[in-house]
Each structure stands twice: as structure tokens, then as C-alpha cells.
Amino acid sequence: MLQLFIPLGFLGIVYRQIKYALADMDLVFKLLERRPEIQDAPDTKALRLRDGEIRFEHVDFHYQHERAILQDVDFRIAPGQTLAVVGHSGAGKSTLARLLFRFYDVTAGRILIDGQDLREVTQESLRAAIGIVPQDTVLFNDTIYYNLAYGRPEATRAEVERCAEMAHIRTFIESLPDGWDTMVGERGLKLSGGEKQRVAIARAILKQPRILVFDEATSSLDSHTEQAIQQTLAEVAENHTTLVIAHRLSTVVDADLILVLEQGRIREQGTHRALLEAGGHYAAMWDLQQREGPDAPVPVAATDTR
Ligand code: ATP
To answer: Which spans are transmembrane here (predicted)?
Structure first.
């Protein structure tokens, strides 16, 4: 009997690994939509991560030749600081995150992490350094435990629980009748937008990355949940270099630096206070959102010259 159990146990491990691998590909394809051919050069080395400083140096980028998406984008995120990017839909905000993850290569300029050009380090080491909280969290048809542990499958139960606690979702999970074994996803319990974001935050911090990217969900949450999520993000961001792709200005108030992106160019930059005092585009956007609520459309530039 024992002899039968050993191979079955082994098969169980293999099954689990295949499942993780498939889940991973599923998520990657979802994130990429269409995967471009970015290859490591033969002599690339692993990223030597130190403090997690990010630099975009005069970055130009286009997906298709005839249409520039980013032009001369130049900024630095100091280690441990938070940079938020705002701007109208299509301004190029999420593209910055895709370039940082090296889903695409820049057309001109360069992106550096701790002084190393992304094109000169292995993609595996780069992606291990960055945790992403995406706009739409993919939930697998599996237990809530599996869905969280997915951030780092080899993590211990205690680590998973601690990250759930940091993301303020542990109490919710443990209040469910089946607790951590609750099935979620299309065929299980449907999580609310806020709960899904917390799962994504827990996954991202479980990965223990030096750098965090929050691509804020475009769909609005009720204001109580939104504030609670923002509080969680602020706590989690404290020990990481953080890039926030923001769709609501309320998210960015405490950022160390805010970039206002318009038609792929940095139009203004500064802290919330400095940008309000400057009385420019950001101040106008802020006024509008104060008057009409967080879902007020961000004013779009008169003509799109791209
Ligand atoms: P939103 O606030 O709506 O999420 P965004 O500022 O994040 O917008 P991006 O997603 O960075 O904007 O897109 C910038 C521009 O690049 C858009 O005009 C978009 O249509 C275009 N774009 C995005 N992805 C691709 C792609 N894979 N191929 C071609 N064009 C793309």
C-alpha cells in the first residue's frame, strides 16, 4: 500500500506544479494580450538589486511606427519613494508599467533599475524584483489560499497568512464557512472589486519584491472601500519603491512625486501641494474632481497630435 502512496504523492506534486505553470501562463497571457518577442541577450546577467532606484532617461516609445506613445519621458523614483502618474485615458500611463516590466523595449532612451539598463539583465531577475497589482485581478477556479499563495507558491502558510493580514483580507477569509479552502473564481465565490484588489495586494507583497507597481482599477469602488484600499496601499508602499498608475486623483495626494502625462509627454511634475499652487493642468483636474466627484472625466487635451 505504501508503495502505491509514494507514486501517487509524487504525481500530486507534479500535478500541482503543472497547475501552477498553467496558471502562470494564463496570467501572463492575460497581462500581455499579445506577447512581443523580447529575448535575453546571450551574455545577460541577473539584476543586482540594491535599493530599488528607478530611472527613465529620455524614453521614447511606440507600439507601431507611425504613432509615438511616449516622448522624452524622463524621471527618477528614489529608493523607497512613491511616484504617481496621472493623465487622461490613453496618455500612456500603463505603458510606463509595461516598459518597466520589459514587456516591450524602449524605442529611444533607457530605463535603469539600480543603475542597470533593463536590456542588460535577465527578464526573470527583472520580473522577480517587481510586484504588480493589476487593474483586473485574475482569480483562478481554486481555493482562496491557492489564489493568494500564487504570488510565491513556495511560501509557508504563515507567510501567506501574514500577507493576507497586511492586505486586510485575512479576517474576511477566516470568516467564510470554508475559510481558506473556500473556492473562488467563476465557479466559486465571487469576490467584490475591493476584495479582489486585496487579493492582488497580498499576492504582490508575498512575492517580496523591492519594487511595486499599482495599476489602479478604473472601475470605481464605493468611497469607503476605496479609502480603505488606499490606506492599505499606503502602508504596503512604505517599504518599497512604488509606481502608481492612477485614475483618480484622490489616490495620489500623498505621493512623493506626481507626473502629469499628456499625449505621452510629461506636462507637469511635483507634489500635490506644489502642483495645486502652480495652478496648471493638475490643479484644473483636481478642481473638476472636487466638484464632480472621483469619476469626473479627466479633461482631455484639445487635439491629439500623435
Ligand atoms: P487608461 O487610463 O485608459 O488606462 P493609459 O494612459 O494607461 O490609459 P496606455 O494603456 O498606456 O494608456 O495606452 C497609451 C496608448 O497606447 C493608447 O492610445 C493605446 O491605444 C495605445 N496602446 C496600448 N497598448 C497597445 C498595443 N498593445 N498596441 C498598440 N497600441 C497600444
So the answer is: 1-15
